[in-house]
Amino acid sequence: MLVFIVRTTKNSTFVAANMCEALKDIPGVLAICSSGPYEQSFADAWSNDLGVWMCDRFSRNLTGHVTANPNGTYRDLYLYCVQHTLGSHVGIYNYQNFGNLYTTSPKDFFVKK
């Protein structure tokens, strides 16, 4: 299970998780989840050296998009994950705690200032 929990100076928390809808009712948290309550997020990157799956498709899509688009918005991130995480229904919860998803960005959590 992948979970990022990062706090800002504003006491806000962004969570990206493979925990379905478990995080949707936590006040002050914006949660982007990998799948619905009865789904899985499929494995994506196999390591021959270690003999294990290194990540799932949702995790790779989320980190790849944030890395490639450091000024992107939460809306952009959500739509990218929805469109590229095949076989799972990515969800976004508690968005009202972060204001406008068209103008706010995950860069406060992932990009050095």
Report on this model:
The strands form two sheets. The protein has a four-stranded mixed beta sheet with strand order 1-2-3-6, with no helix packed on it. Strands 4-5 form a two-stranded antiparallel ribbon. It is an alpha+beta fold and 113 residues long. 24% of the residues lie in helices and 25% in strands. Helix 1 (57-68) packs antiparallel against helix 2. Strand 1 and strand 2 (13-17) form a beta hairpin. The chain has a single domain (3-110), classed as 3-Layer(aba) Sandwich (Rossmann fold). It is built from three helices and six strands, in the order βββββααβα. It has helices at residues 57-68, 74-84, 107-110; strands spanning 3-7, 13-17, 29-33, 43-47, 52-56, 91-93.
